[in-house]
């Protein structure tokens, strides 16, 4: 059995009912947050994310599949929402971070991906001095119930994100774009590798395609995505303010 860890996780193992887990200290962010400038978001998060972050689409397989992402910084390894190990309390914290150190992982048996997902935990967080998530009869304890709910909802929502991204790709609505800007100090910012919906491509779609976008809730996500692109200006303001504070 092979378990593929999600991005940012080091080594994950199945969570057993007798496992003891050292839960993260409230407010302390996972280590991977310090070195990323974008993070995956799920279908239900678009409304919350679009207020604070630019939402773009990314592809790791040359445009075969896409994934919605919240942009956190304007250069590689730059997270403008993290300072001294803490996330900006004034903005929405993506579920990808909130679920850590737990996740639901894909499992391959004899190189065949299984349909069911396995609840896993970062191995470093297994600790005999940690907390149990289940009682002696294997029933979930109150501390585990909201974690399990988040994991299940996030996993189901991620599948909806994949379906949405597949529809956008099938309808040829996604185009690559580059964010270019110049700070007041004269530094050039050039962020590439992103895709966005071209609004002008919506009009030529046929009635069945328009109906499908509305019925599946994709149309609302498209406009949340388009509105969120204005947040690139706010990201630039954050970058400038951080540079001035460090000067």
Write up what this structure looks like.
By secondary structure, the protein is an alpha+beta fold. The protein has one domain (2-240). The chain is built from six helices and 14 strands. It has helices at 46-49, 95-98, 145-170, 207-215, 218-228, 231-246; strands spanning 2-4, 12-14, 20-21, 38-40, 55-58, 67-71, 82-83, 86-87, 102-109, 112-113, 118-122, 131-132, 174-182, 188-197. Strands 1, 2, 9, 10 and 11 form a five-stranded antiparallel β-sheet that branches. Strand 5 and strand 6 form a beta hairpin. It is globular. The N and C termini lie far apart (51 Å).
Give the percentage of residues in beta strands: 15-25%
How many separate domains? 1
What does the average pLDDT come to? 90
CA-based gyration radius:
20 Å
Identify the overall geometry: globular
Low-pLDDT segments, ≥5 res:
none
Which sequence of SSEs, written as H and E, runs from N to C?
EEEEHEEEEHEEEEHEEHHH
Can you give the helix content as a percent range? 25-40%
End-to-end separation: 51 Å
Helical stretch tally: 6
Keywords:
single chain, 247 residues, alpha+beta, five-stranded antiparallel beta sheet, 6 helices, globular
What is the secondary structure topology, with strand pairs?
Layout (H helix, E strand, L loop, with lengths): L1 E3 L7 E3 L5 E2 L16 E3 L5 H4 L5 E4 L8 E5 L10 E2 L2 E2 L7 H4 L3 E8 L2 E2 L4 E5 L8 E2 L12 H26 L3 E9 L5 E10 L9 H9 L2 H11 L2 H16 L1
Antiparallel strand pairs: 1-9, 2-11, 3-12, 4-6, 5-6, 7-8, 9-10, 9-11, 13-14
């Amino acid at each position: 059995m092979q378990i593929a860890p999600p991005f940012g996780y080091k080594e994950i193992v199945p969570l057993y009912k007798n496992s003891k887990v050292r839960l993260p200290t409230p407010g302390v962010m996972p280590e991977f947050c310090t070195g990323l400038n974008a993070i995956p978001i799920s279908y239900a998060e678009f409304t919350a994310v679009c207020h604070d972050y630019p939402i773009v689409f990314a592809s790791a397989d040359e445009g075969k599949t896409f994934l919605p992402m919240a942009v956190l910084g304007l250069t590689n390894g730059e997270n403008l929402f993290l300072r001294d190990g803490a996330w900006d309390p004034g903005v929405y914290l993506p579920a990808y971070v909130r679920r850590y150190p737990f996740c639901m992982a894909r499992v391959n048996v004899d190189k065949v991906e299984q349909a069911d997902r396995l609840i896993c935990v970062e191995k470093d967080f297994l600790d005999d001095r940690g907390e149990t998530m289940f009682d002696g009869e294997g029933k979930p304890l109150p501390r585990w119930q909201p974690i399990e709910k988040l994991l299940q909802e996030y996993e189901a929502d991620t599948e909806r994100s994949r379906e949405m991204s597949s529809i956008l790709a099938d309808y040829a609505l996604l185009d690559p774009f580059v964010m270019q800007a110049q700070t007041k100090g004269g530094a050039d910012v050039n962020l590439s590798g992103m895709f966005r919906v071209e609004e002008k491509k919506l009009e030529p779609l046929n009635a069945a395609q328009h109906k499908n976008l509305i019925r599946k809730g994709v149309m609302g996500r498209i406009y949340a995505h388009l509105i969120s692109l204005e947040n690139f200006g706010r990201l630039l303001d954050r970058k400038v303010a951080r540079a001035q504070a460090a000067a």
